[in-house]
Backbone:
């Protein structure tokens, strides 16, 4: 039992030291209650901060997935016009993105885990603070300052342990989020600079990206032309029904009268 | 016996489960002493799993102190050494 015991003893003595005690033990109760409220605010803010980081990572995953889809489309077009070199380049870039996306999804899962843990910690603290508030009123109403001491010590130790635990949970979540925010910041910068193969971005693209883009618009034009050519036969037959010929003169007369 | 797993809350552990938990605790302790990270990670995991398996959550609205306090599931060997040292454990 030695490791568990050692950790327990040290944790408890530190939690105990962290509690400020007032001259009048009953004032200690009010003061501690105030600190509990502060900690509740802090843990709620912690939950919100982690949620913000999680959403940021979500946004980045979406952006990168869009780019990967675009590169896939470009690779398909490149193959359809026999440019295997360009298709290979597009797929290479896409696989680079896939790695980033996998990393971000791992981070996302970690942040989600932290968010859940912190939310549960908040609920546990909330329950203890509520219990403390009830106990505090009972102690103040029932006992004299001298008599109250033992009861107060019990309540303070109980809440102190929870506060120490929650304090550490907030600290851990903050540390993890800070690490991920630094990485998220780096990815935002890469996205902004176009270095993550953002071929959609005008201006800051490289030769390959321009060629892939040109290939895209080039094949679009070819495809459109082919479609028009295919459609030109039935279109030529249409006037035989007389609609256009009949409508045409009417339009001109309308316009003439205006 | 009330055991707190940090970051998870308090658990009521029946006395007859303690012998097995003591063995698991000894494994964690020896891994901390030898500084063996892999052994530490799996030993801590087993210890916490042992507590969770034998215990029921302690009543939420109580102000009872725990008899034993265990490090969080994702604690590193370094963090446990910090827990065992005398400074900087409780922020704020």
Residues:
């Amino acid at each position: 039992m030695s490791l568990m015991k050692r950790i327990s003893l040290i944790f408890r003595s530190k939690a105990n030291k962290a509690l400020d005690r007032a001259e009048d033990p009953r004032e200690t109760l009010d003061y501690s209650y105030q600190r509990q409220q502060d900690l509740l605010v802090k843990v709620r803010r912690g939950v919100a901060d982690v949620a913000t980081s999680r959403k940021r990572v979500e946004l980045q995953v979406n952006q990168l997935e869009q780019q990967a889809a675009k590169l896939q489309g470009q690779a398909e077009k490149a193959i359809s016009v026999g440019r295997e070199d360009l298709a290979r380049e597009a797929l290479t870039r896409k696989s680079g993105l896939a790695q980033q996306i996998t990393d971000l999804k791992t981070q996302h899962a970690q942040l989600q885990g932290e968010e859940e843990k912190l939310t549960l910690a908040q609920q546990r603290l909330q329950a203890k603070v509520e219990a403390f508030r009830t106990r505090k009123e009972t102690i103040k109403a029932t006992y004299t300052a001298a008599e109250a001491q033992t009861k107060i010590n019990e309540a303070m130790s109980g809440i102190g342990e929870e506060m120490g635990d929650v304090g550490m949970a907030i600290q851990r979540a903050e540390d993890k989020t800070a690490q991920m925010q630094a990485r998220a910041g780096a990815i935002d910068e890469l996205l902004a600079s176009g270095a993550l193969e953002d071929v959609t971005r005008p201006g800051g693209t490289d030769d390959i990206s321009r060629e892939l883009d040109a290939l895209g618009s080039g094949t679009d034009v070819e495809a459109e032309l082919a479609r028009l050519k295919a459609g030109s036969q039935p279109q030529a037959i249409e006037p035989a029904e007389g609609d256009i010929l009949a409508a045409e003169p009417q339009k001109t007369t309308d316009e003439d009268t205006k | 016996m009330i055991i707190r797993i940090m970051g998870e809350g308090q658990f009521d552990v029946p006395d007859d489960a303690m012998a097995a938990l003591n063995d698991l605790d000894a494994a964690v302790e020896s891994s901390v002493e030898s500084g063996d990270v892999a052994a530490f990670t799996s030993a801590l995991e087993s210890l916490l799993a042992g507590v969770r398996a034998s215990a029921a959550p302690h009543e939420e609205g109580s102000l009872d102190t725990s008899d034993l306090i265990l490090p969080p599931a994702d604690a590193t060997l370094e963090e446990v050494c910090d827990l065992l040292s005398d400074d900087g454990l409780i922020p704020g």
Notes: The radius of gyration of chain B is 13 Å.
